[in-house]
Amino acid sequence: MTLSNLILLSWIIFFIGLYGSLTKKSAVLVVISLELMFNAVALNFVAFSRFAPGGLIGSTDIANVLSGQVMAIFIIAIGAAEAALALSIVIAMYKEKNTIEFSETIEIREKDVD
Amino acid sequence: MLVDVVFYIVALLLLGSSFLVLFSSNIYRSAIFLAFSMLSFASLYFLLSAEFIGVVQILVYVGAVSVLIALSVMLVRDIEKSTQGNRYRFISNILISLTIILIASFFINYDWNLYSDNILNSSKCLLSECKNESGILISSTDWIGKLITADFIIAFQLTGLILLASLIGALALLRIRMGNNDSK
User: Fold this and answer.
1) Half-sphere CA count of B95, side-chain side, radius 13 A
2) Closest partner residue to B53 among A16, A69, A96, by Cβ?
3) What is the pLDDT of residues B138-161, one digit of tens each?
C-alpha cells in the first residue's frame, strides 16, 4: 500500500464517477456518480495526510498532517447535503414532469432550436 | 504484508462495486452497490489509520445517503429505462479520454518517492497490533476535534450553514411542488 497505489485507485473511481455523471440518462444515477466522485476526492485527501512528509511519528506538526482528515470530514458533510438537495430536486422534477431524465426537462432553451 | 493483501482485496472490491454501480441493469442494484462501494471506502480509511473518518463514512454514506437514494428510487418508479445513456455519450467519451491522457502524463512523470509511509510500517502490523509501540499515534479523533474547533472554525460554521440551507431548500422545494399538485 503505497501512495501511488492509492492515488491511482481514487483516480479510477473519480473517472468512473465522471463517466457516469456525464453519460447517464437518469438523474438518480447522476447523483450516485457525483457521490462516487466526492468519495474519491476524500480518499485522496486522507491518503496524502497519511503519507505526508514529516508525518505523525514525531507529532510535532500534527496540525498540518491531520488537515487532510479534517478536509475529508468537510467533504463528507457537503456530499450528504448535496445528495439530499439533489434528490429532492429529482423528486420534484418527477412530480412535475413525470420523468427523471435531464434531457427531457430542459425548458430554458428556445422551442425551435431542435 | 498483511496490510498489502487486505489493501488489494479491498481495492478489488471497490473497483468491482463501482463498475457495477454504473453498469448494472437495475437502478436498485446500483444503489446497493453504492452502499458496498462506500463500505470499501470506509475499510480503506481504516487501513489508512483514519478510523474516525471511516466511522463517519459508514454512518453518513452507508447509513443515510444509501437509504435516501433507495427511497428516491422507490418514489420515482422509472426503473426500466433508467440505466441507459444519454445523447451526449460520444462527445463526453472524447472529453474523458483526453482528460485521462492529460492526467496520466502527470501521474507517470511524478516522483512518488517523495512520500514514504511514515506513520507505521505497513508491512509490519495492522492497527491493533501496533498499539504498544512508541511514537505511533493510534487515536487521531481528539486531534481532529481540536483542529476543527481551532483552525477550521470558519469552515466548520460555513459547513453548518450549508447543511441548514440545503435542508430548508429541500423541504421548501418538496412542499411547494406538493402544494401545486394539490391545488390542481
Assistant:
1) 10
2) A69
3) 567 887 888 889 889 999 999 999
Closest CA to A72 of A101, A94, A49, A105: A49
Helical H runs in chain A?
3-23, 27-50, 62-97
> Over the range B53-76, which residues count as b (16 or more CB within 10 Å of their CB) and which as e?
bbebbbebbbeebbebbbebbeeb
C-beta atoms of B69 and A32 within 8 A: yes
Q: Is the pTM of this model over 0.80?
A: yes
CB pairs below 8 Å between A and B: how many? 247
- Contact check, Cβ <8 Å, B21/A16: yes
The half-sphere exposure of B48 on its side-chain side, counting CA atoms within 13 A, is 35
Cell of A93: 422534477
Q: Which residues contact residue B51 at a Cβ distance below 8 angstroms, ignoring those fewer than 6 apart?
A: B45, B127, B139, B140, B141
pLDDT tens by residue, B156-172:
999 999 999 999 998 88
CA–CA gap between residue B4 and residue B173 (Å, rounded): 47
ipTM above 0.95, yes or no: no
Q: How far apart are CA B95 and CA B91, in angstroms?
A: 6
Interface of B with A in 65-124 (CB under 8 A): 65, 68-69, 72-73, 75-76, 78, 81-89, 92-93, 95-96, 99-100, 103, 107, 112, 114-119, 122
Using a CB–CB cutoff of 8 Å, tell me whether B63 touches chain A.
no
Residue from A3, A6, A11, A22 to probe the interface with B (highest B Cβ count within 10 Å):
A22
